[in-house]
């Protein structure tokens, strides 16, 4: 699922995206080409505000001024699997549209996204992409079918002040699941009333974080074969291990607290109130914690999720800006110019990056909050140097995450019936935390049967 933190302003790149994506319009098609290449581009969802429409129109005008031989027509657009299929079948997709990480690989395999390899490789920063992120828009041979933007990765948030109270070193957060468990037990024993470690359990967030824990142990909950058939398999060794881990923290160590109905806002509130020491989170959650839960950035720490086992990876989310397979060569070239202007320049252009940071700082929002970088370490470091005067969080507190994320494999969310799957797994997580004798095998088999039926029915 998309990190709920994304609905808030979550960092420099996200703020810039929010500004540029804040609106959408649908202008009429030009009556004649006048030698121009015409492209249609997706804006935002229907119902956006007048201010949002104006913001988008201003961006279109700026693009057309910079590219006088390209004319842009914008269309309101909201991704859903069924609506995409309808537009694809009817040939009504805009030249540029977005798809989520969850679906990009499947769409590539089905030939439903245009190959824009040559156009992307012609961009001046083409060799600077974070390869783990770009992979979600590539096929097995390395061809490129889109440009990722707005990504996040899951990390482990922790309360540095609580670590200190428990006699633990906040500069040395746990790096393995065994260490997480040991630190959680120490915290709950030495700081009464604090859950050393807990995960979300409701609002589909319980399933989301259980899948996160499964990926971190090398497992997958869905697989798709060469024919396109998807098999749901939450009844796997890694998911069972993740649930047994929660069971043991709760029933053996007594380090999971007593609140087992936590959604995204609930767990953030509890963390902000000092009731939770560690929990998995989107890497950008600090913005929300500061804005909504009064967390002092000096007390906040972020480290990478422990990875163990073959094929272990970090669950990530985000979007891919893609191009219609019906676009001509000239339209594809113009489309990639739009993607560069609209999505990427805010990440590689110093003025745009600095301006966005100043807006954040002026409104007392955190500057320097880590996200999953679209580009490589050098480009990330350059961005950080540009915004250094505006950074208002202790970067050393999030260094355990930012120093390792470039080397961690990124895995997108399950692509079929994602939210239904997460919702079904909520009940499993709750059962394990509230019933000492919950039968994990039976619970997971029930989820597989339920969600496989939806997948097979195409619902």
- The outline comes out as globular
Tally of structural domains = 2
Strand runs, count: 10
State the CATH architecture of the largest domain. Answer: 3-Layer(aba) Sandwich
Cα distance spanning the termini: 17 Å
- The CATH class label of the largest domain is Alpha Beta
Number of helices: 18
Question: What value does the average pLDDT take?
Answer: 89
Class from secondary-structure proportions: alpha+beta
Helix amount: 40-55%
Order of helices and strands: HEHEHEHHHEHHHEEHHEHEEHHHHEHH
CATH topology of the largest domain, by name, is D-Maltodextrin-Binding Protein, domain 2
The largest sheet is: 6 strands, mixed
Poorly predicted regions: 3-32
Query: What's the name of the CATH homologous superfamily of the largest domain?
Result: Periplasmic binding protein-like II
Give the strand content. 5-15%
């Amino acid at each position: 699922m998309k990190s709920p933190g994304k609905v808030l302003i979550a960092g420099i790149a996200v703020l810039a995206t929010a500004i540029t994506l804040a609106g959408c319009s649908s202008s009429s098609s030009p009556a004649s080409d006048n030698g121009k290449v015409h492209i249609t581009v997706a804006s935002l969802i229907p119902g956006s505000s007048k201010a949002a429409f104006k913001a988008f129109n201003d961006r279109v005008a700026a693009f057309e001024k910079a590219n006088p031989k390209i004319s842009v027509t914008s269309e309101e657009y909201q991704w859903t699997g069924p609506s995409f299929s309808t537009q694809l079948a009817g040939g009504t997709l805009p030249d540029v549209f977005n798809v989520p990480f969850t679906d990009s690989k499947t769409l590539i395999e089905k030939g439903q996204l245009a190959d824009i390899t040559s156009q992307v490789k012609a961009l001046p920063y083409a060799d600077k992409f974070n390869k783990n992120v770009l992979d979600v828009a590539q096929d097995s041979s390395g061809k490129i079918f889109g440009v990722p933007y707005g990504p996040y990765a899951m990390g482990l948030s922790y309360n540095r002040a609580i670590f200190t109270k428990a006699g633990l070193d906040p500069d040395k957060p746990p790096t393995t699941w065994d260490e997480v468990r040991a630190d959680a037990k120490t915290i709950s024993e030495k700081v009464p009333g604090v859950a050393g470690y807990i995960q979300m359990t409701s609002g589909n967030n319980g399933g989301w974080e259980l899948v996160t824990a499964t990926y971190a142990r090398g497992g997958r909950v869905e697989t798709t074969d060469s024919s396109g058939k998807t098999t749901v398999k939450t009844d796997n060794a890694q998911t069972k291990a993740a649930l047994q881990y929660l069971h043991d923290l709760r029933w053996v160590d007594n380090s999971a607290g007593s609140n087992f109905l936590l959604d995204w806002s609930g767990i953030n509130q509890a963390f902000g109130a000092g009731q939770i020491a560690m929990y998995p989170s989107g890497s950008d959650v600090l913005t929300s914690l500061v804005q909504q839960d009064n967390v002092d950035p000096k007390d906040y720490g972020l480290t990478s999720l422990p990875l163990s086992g073959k094929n272990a990876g970090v669950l990530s989310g985000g979007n891919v800006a893609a191009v219609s397979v019906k676009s001509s060569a000239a339209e594809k070239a113009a489309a990639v110019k739009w993607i560069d202007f609209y999505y990427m320049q805010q990440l590689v252009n110093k003025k745009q990056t600095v301006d966005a940071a100043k807006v954040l700082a002026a409104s007392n929002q955190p500057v320097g909050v880590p996200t999953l970088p679209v580009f490589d370490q050098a480009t990330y470091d350059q961005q950080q140097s540009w915004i250094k005067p505006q950074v208002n969080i202790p970067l050393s507190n999030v260094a355990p995450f930012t120093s390792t994320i470039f080397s961690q494999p990124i895995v997108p969310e399950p692509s079929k019936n994602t939210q239904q799957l997460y919702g079904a797994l909520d009940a499993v997580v709750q059962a394990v935390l509230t019933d000492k004798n919950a039968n994990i095998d039976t619970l997971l088999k029930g989820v597989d049967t339920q969600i496989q039926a939806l997948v097979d029915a195409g619902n």
